[in-house]
Predict the 3D structure of the following.
Amino acid sequence: MPKHPKEESLLKINNFLQGKEEVKVEEETFKKLMFIYSVAMKELVTNGTAHNIKSAKKRVKVNSVKALNNQMAKSELKTTLKKFDAAIAGGDKAEATAAYTTAVKAVDQAAAKHLLHKNNASNKKSKMTTKLNGMA
């Protein structure tokens, strides 16, 4: 017996996705149902009612913490890159060089933490070097 009011519709959708039930609906209706399913599942996960197993509950918590840490690290990286661009636009060679050093270090650390692909990091560093050398 479903505990949550939305669980009944979730069970129907879940049975359909697993092939246990056959439901004939139009494509647009199916998209709406899938959206409702995803929203309801997110709500159940955040309430903690979607998982019965202790390790699954822990995974949800750990994943949300890691996602938050990644989001903060990416934001910090973007801020560092913007500071470098501002230093280049300012025209001060010494300030730009200091910002370049900081930015390259930040990009390398992001690549080491797998926030950026190594080729993407290399591309960013190359573009920054070109900007710095173009200041003259």
User: Anything to note?
Assistant: The chain has a mean pLDDT of 83.
